[in-house]
Specification:
elongated
Length: about 170
């Protein structure tokens, strides 16, 4: 229970930190005659545009590097085999053991098939984690937008937390 409560508190804290960081441009737009709701929309759209632009700039390079790595795995395996054999020149029994392990491509596939299956299971787990991360991000974005667009109910709740004799100081603090 405590872990879930801490996670919820952390979520709200992160949302408020984002809201505090995004509030100054909204206030600046308000001072120039744009309503808070429209200002929030403009700032969030600009933020999403920047994040999307960075994503489009980074994603192709990342996909290219992952594809290159996947294509080079057999070459890396062969390089590792050659280096292991060279390191073990003075140890013929170990060298023979290494040669037996990597005797043929079919045998390599058979030996590493269970390992590959466990990796695929992990990738599936990471995919579910990625989906959870996207849902968490959308929920966080929604919370930040609400906090930016309608801060008065939250500020009133904040003020009412304090005893009556300290509420004036709390109002001045924000």
């Amino acid at each position: 229970f405590i872990n879930e409560a801490l996670l919820a508190i952390l979520f709200v804290a992160v949302a408020f930190i984002f809201a505090l960081a995004l509030n100054p441009p909204i206030v600046w737009l308000e001072k120039r005659g744009i309503g808070r709701g429209w200002g929030t929309l403009l700032v969030i759209m600009a933020l999403l545009g920047v994040v999307t632009g960075v994503g489009f700039a980074v994603a192709p390079r990342l996909v290219e590097q992952v594809s290159t790595l996947a294509a080079d795995v057999p070459n890396y395996a062969e390089l590792l085999n050659r280096r292991a054999l060279r390191w073990l020149e003075n140890y013929p029994a170990a060298q023979q053991f290494i040669q037996n392990i990597f005797s043929s491509d079919r045998e390599i596939i058979q030996r590493f098939s269970p390992f590959a299956q466990s990796i695929l299971a992990r990738v599936g787990g990471y995919t579910l984690s990625a989906i959870g991360l996207v849902i968490f991000g959308l929920l966080l974005l929604t919370t930040v937008i609400y906090t930016l667009a309608q801060p008065k109910p939250l500020l009133q709740s904040y003020i009412h937390i304090f005893p009556a004799n300290l509420r004036d100081k709390a109002e001045r603090a924000y």
